[in-house]
Design brief:
The complex is a heterodimer of chains A (430) and B (463).
Chain A (H helix, E strand, L loop, with lengths): L5 E3 L2 E3 L3 E3 L8 H10 L3 E7 L10 E6 L2 E8 L8 H14 L4 E6 L5 H13 L4 E5 L13 H4 L2 H14 L4 E4 L7 H10 L4 E4 L3 E3 L2 E2 L6 E2 L9 E4 L4 H12 L8 E4 L5 H9 L2 E6 L1 H6 L3 H16 L27 E5 L9 H9 L4 E5 L5 E5 L9 H5 L6 E5 L9 H21 L1
Helix pairs in contact in A: 1-2, 3-5, 5-6, 8-10
Chain B lengths: L11 H8 L8 H10 L7 H5 L6 H9 L3 H11 L3 H7 L6 H4 L2 H4 L5 H15 L13 E5 L3 H12 L3 E5 L8 H4 L8 H12 L4 E3 L10 H7 L2 E4 L19 E3 H9 L11 E5 L3 H12 L4 E5 L11 H9 L3 E3 L2 E8 L5 E15 L5 E5 L5 E4 L2 E4 L7 H6 L4 E2 L2 E2 L13 E3 L14 H30 L1
Parallel strand pairs in B: 1-2, 1-4, 2-3, 4-16, 5-13, 6-7, 6-13, 7-8
Antiparallel strand pairs in B: 9-10, 10-11, 10-12, 14-15
Helix pairs in contact in B: 2-4, 4-5, 4-9, 5-9, 6-9, 10-12, 10-18, 14-15, 15-16
Classes of the chains: A alpha/beta (430), B alpha/beta (463).
Bound molecules: flavin-adenine dinucleotide, flavin mononucleotide and iron/sulfur cluster.
Flavin mononucleotide binds next to strand 4, strand 6 and helix 9 of chain A.
């Protein structure tokens, strides 16, 4: 069995599974239950000046009968007194000295406030700090959370203030509610961040009740924007992770968050550069025990791959993520339909006919049976048919050896550029 | 399925065809869809309803996340014969019957998901368990059926040195020999046997305890003995003509079909099956698949009182088996050559009175005797007890049902524990593969607790 332990910027934990700062890590009772269930670390529900929460806080998006495809909340940071949280952190750490306990922090953007809270939480023995510059609602209106997280200078300044007194590693948690996440990530690093974590929740409105015309959720008939998370946000998180992981100027370990609910998600995040991961929604949907399935799946996967440590996954796919301009325009795939697995739902035909390149024909074979066939010469290799195909192994995307040398858009532009240069050069000489 | 015709010869191909597993397994797509329908309940009622307590939501989540090894582990960890159980458990009465979706939509197809995961393990020949660190203690297990295998496996995982004594050439008990192949192929049961053998358990076949080795020898040689010898064949029905040619014991009939093509020829024949339990149903469907042209079940009570599971009854009806309710067989009649020709029966009626077992008492209708023309009679009125063996060990019993302490499974001899069908009856559980497995586990844990606690004591006294 592989070694699952990780070391994220000096924070050690028995496995890469951490609970994200959120309701599951609200109290010592919960965090200790989580550790008993198998979680390797927990980022405590964000500490700061206690707030008041609303009643009705969450909503979820169900997709075709599956519940909680996405999750939405308008909850703020911890509503419990700081002293109580600190006492419970101390007790938890004492009971679980080898598990990672990280304090998530959010205070007004002043040096004094940051110094004060960092000292207080480090006094109770946390393994690290996570600065929450991500919460998109409520706190932002007070100039904290995403509001400060959207201002790169403020991220840098606050990170610096925290680092001035911190003796444990500092992780900066980033908001996805921004155009280019790498800008903020770089500023966090300039401020001295030892690691970054991403993503926090995405601005959202879960829905509108078409019968009562209220927002979902609503608080006494009124709603406000919330933060979106859960499986639906995974692709967004994964891209932001990848962008930061391949940015040389970021260059610090990353704790990946956003939509992780299975061991496969964990593998994907780690391959895309996460050193460890954090989970909120999946735990809220299923309870802490979900980690058992994740650990078991990850263990079996690592064994199958012959890897002795989970850390061997970190960043393996990062170099394969590049810019569109670097993709080989001469690479070619075409769709091929395997008749023996095809169930004749004709979804590929209509998808291609109406919305792609009209190259799947509905035919009748010699025995009078309906078949679907791709005209490969017209297929652009968009993948759509294989995406809508409901069965396993009915449509394969086949690589075609077309004999053309690789050529990206950038190569092409360079070539055209050099032709132009030589042309203008000739003229000058002439 | 399309069954054999009335061809006079039964070709090996036809036999293979008729006795191949009837129910198809789930496809990958089917398994993904079904597993994602599971709610992953907390403190799920299906777990409680499974006698072996398989963590069902967990194994289903593992299927949903493509971790089939993990799924198979979860199943086999709790149930050493989990692959057989996936096929033969009355799931409607157990796990699936308890599924919370029964009310709001339809229950999860737990049995077939369990089969999907264990089929994967069989196909990959996955090694799921390891033997424990040897602890110098030796246990003998009598009988290599579900109960014996479960006990042996758990003891081996605890580090005991275990020997199974099995009288037949193959272990697996009724899973290997008694349950029809089209419900449970023999290869499944033999894979489970192999899993136990791989943990270092010495399975000595062709070893009948009481004949090839005595109780005394076992009791001196081993630190504990698990008696898991099950029950025997069908007892005599005690009517005239029972010895005629063409009268078969249902369990022996099935057994013949488990190891290859049987000598019995039922092609085109009319068969009467006496009894209405699960064994009778297996005897009847087996006859159908052996080519019988007509199979009638003869039972003196009604559908209400029959003990066969609903799914078995439905299956038999689908196979074309006919049911003669309120019909009591009186004698079997043969021709001059000693071959069965008729079954004499009498019509019954329910008196309206309740018997000691709480079932309505049937009474013969005077003058209603009739002759049923048959070519073969299959008897299936229960199983004989292994009283000789039990008495050979000098154990207390009631009518062949070994007396045990229900928590420790210990018999009247403190060195002997009993599990499975040998303790079935007198309110001690149900004769099911899954309960036999659970009892085997419990006996193993009791032995382990007892013998290792002793060890702790002696260690402490040394210190
Ligand atoms: C026809 C039929 C159909 C059934 N269908 C189902 C079903 O669909 N679902 C279900 O859950 N249950 C079913 N059962 C019941 C189920 O098979 C039993 O409850 C289960 O096999 C009991 O397990 P066991 O280990 O106690 O006994 P067995 O399976 O009987 O195993 C006992 C073993 O001990 C061996 N043995 C006996 N005497 C000795 C000796 N002296 N020395 C050495 N070895 C000995 C035997 O050869 C045998 O291998 C069916 C039973 C029958 C007969
Ligand atoms: C109800 C709720 C409350 C949250 N509170 C906090 C918080 O206090 N601090 C914080 O940093 N993130 C908070 N988050 C964000 C999560 O930590 C996490 O970044 C996000 O949910 C994405 O992960 P997921 O898809 O696994 O849920 C909260 C999320 C939810 C759903
Ligand atoms: S989960 Fe349900 S019961 Fe618990 S606090 Fe929320 S609304 Fe109340």
């Amino acid at each position: 069995m592989a070694d699952l332990s990780i070391d994220l910027a000096g924070i050690r934990s028995p496995n890469p599974f951490w609970l994200a700062s959120a309701p599951p890590t609200n109290t010592g009772y919960q965090v200790q239950r989580a550790f008993e269930a198998g979680w390797g670390g927990a980022v405590w529900k964000t500490l700061g000046d206690p707030i008041i929460n609303t009643s009705a806080r969450f909503a979820a998006i169900n997709f075709n009968g599956q519940r909680v495809a996405g999750f939405n909340n308008i909850e703020l940071i911890s509503d419990r007194p700081l002293d109580v949280n600190l006492k419970e952190i101390y007790e938890t750490k004492k009971r679980f000295p080898n598990h990672a306990v990280i304090a998530s922090l959010m205070v007004e953007p002043t040096q004094y406030k940051w110094h004060e809270i960092v000292k207080r939480v480090e006094d109770v023995g946390v393994d690290g700090l996570e600065l929450n510059f991500g919460c998109p609602h409520g706190m932002a209106e007070r100039g904290m959370g995403a509001a400060s997280g959207q201002q790169p200078d403020l991220v840098q300044a606050q990170t610096t203030w925290a680092k001035e007194v911190a003796t444990t590693p500092v992780i900066v948690k980033l908001t996805p509610n921004i155009t280019d996440i790498t800008v903020v990530a770089r500023h966090a690093v300039k401020g001295g961040a030892d690691a970054i974590s991403l993503i926090n929740t995405i601005n959202s409105l879960a829905g509108v009740d078409i019968h009562s015309w209220n927002t979902i959720p609503h608080v006494g008939g009124k709603g406000a924007h919330g933060g979106y998370c859960g499986p639906a946000v995974k692709p967004i998180a994964l891209n932001m992770l990848a962008e930061c992981a391949r940015d040389m100027n970021v260059g610090v370990p990353i704790s990946g968050i956003g939509g992780i609910s299975t061991w496969q998600d964990v593998v994907e995040f780690m391959l895309m550069g996460a050193t460890g991961i954090q989970v909120c929604t999946a735990a809220m949907h299923h309870g802490f025990r979900i980690v058992e399935e994740m650990i078991d799946g990850l263990n079996n996967y690592l064994d199958d791959k012959g890897l002795s440590s989970v850390t061997e996954l970190i960043g393996q796919s990062v170099s394969r993520y590049s810019n569109w301009g670097d993709l080989d325009l001469n690479y070619q795939v075409v769709a091929r339909i395997n008749e023996e697995n095809c169930i004749n739902c004709n979804k590929c035909h209509i998808a291609c006919e109406d919305t792609s390149h009209q190259c799947i024909d509905m035919l009748t074979n010699a025995e009078g049976k309906s078949i679907l066939q791709v005209r490969e010469e017209d297929c652009v290799g968009c993948n759509l048919c294989s995406i809508v195909c409901p069965v396993d192994g009915a449509i394969d995307m086949i690589e075609i050896q077309n004999g053309m040398a690789p050529m990206s858009w950038n190569d092409r532009q360079k070539m055209i550029g050099s032709l132009n240069d030589s042309y203008t050069g000739a003229e000058v000489i002439g | 399925m399309e069954l054999s015709s009335t061809l006079a010869s039964f070709t090996p191909d036809l036999f293979m065809h008729n006795f191949a597993e009837a129910e198809p397994g789930l496809t990958h797509k089917g398994a993904i869809e079904e597993s994602n329908r599971c709610l992953y309940c907390y403190d799920a009622p299906c777990i409680t309803a499974c006698p072996t307590g398989i963590n069902i939501p967990s194994f289903i989540k593992r299927i949903a996340t493509d971790n089939l090894k993990g799924a198979a582990y979860t199943i086999m960890d709790a149930n050493p014969v989990g692959a057989s159980c996936a096929r033969v458990c009355p799931t409607e009465e157990l796990c699936e019957g308890a599924c919370v979706l029964n009310e709001s939509s339809k229950p999860i197809d737990i049995g077939r998901l369990q089969r999907y995961a264990t089929d994967w393990a069989i196909e990959k020949d996955a090694s799921l368990f390891e033997a424990g660190i040897p602890n110098e203690k030796k246990v003998a297990v009598i009988g290599g059926g579900p109960a014996g295998l479960a006990a042996a496996r758990e003891l081996a995982r605890e580090g005991f040195s275990v020997v199974i004594y099995e009288s037949k050439p193959l272990a697996g008990g009724l899973d290997t020999h008694g349950i029809v192949s089209f419900r449970l192929p023999q290869s499944i049961s033999l894979w489970e046997v192999e899993q136990v053998r791989k943990l270092g358990v010495d399975i000595r076949t062709h070893m009948k305890v009481g004949t090839d080795i005595t109780a005394e020898q076992l009791l001196t040689e081993y630190d504990a003995v698990v008696l898991a010898a099950g029950m025997g064949y069908v007892p005599p029905i005690k009517i005239e003509g029972e010895q005629l040619q063409g009268v078969y014991d249902a369990i022996q009939l099935v057994e013949q079909t488990k190891t290859g093509q049987p000598h019995v020829n039922l092609i085109g024949k009319k068969v009467a099956v006496i009894g209405a339990g699960n064994t009778a149903i297996d005897g009847a469907t087996c006859s159908v698949r052996l080519g019988a042209s007509n199979v009638k079940m003869v039972y003196r009570r009604t559908r209400e009182e029959m003990t066969a599971y609903d799914f078995e009854y439905e299956f038999a009806k689908q196979e074309g088996v006919e049911f003669n309710w309120l019909t009591l067989p009186k004698r079997i009649i043969g021709d001059a050559t000693g071959k069965v020709t008729h079954l004499e029966c009498v019509q019954m009626k329910l008196t309206g009175e309740l018997g000691k077992d709480g079932r309505l008492v049937p009474m013969p209708v005077e003058g209603s005797e009739f002759l049923m023309p048959v070519d073969a009679v299959v008897t299936a009125i229960g199983q004989e007890r292994r009283t000789d063996l039990i008495e050979h060990f000098g154990l207390e019993h009631t009518w062949g049902v070994v007396k045990i302490d229900t928590t420790t499974h210990r018999t009247s001899n403190p060195k002997v524990y009993a599990a499975g069908d040998i303790i079935f009856g007198s309110g001690q559980g149900e004769a099911m593969v899954v309960s036999a497995a659970q009892q085997g586990k419990l006996a193993a844990y009791a032995i382990s607790q007892h013998l290792l606690a002793q060890e702790d004591h002696s260690l402490r006294s040394i210190v």
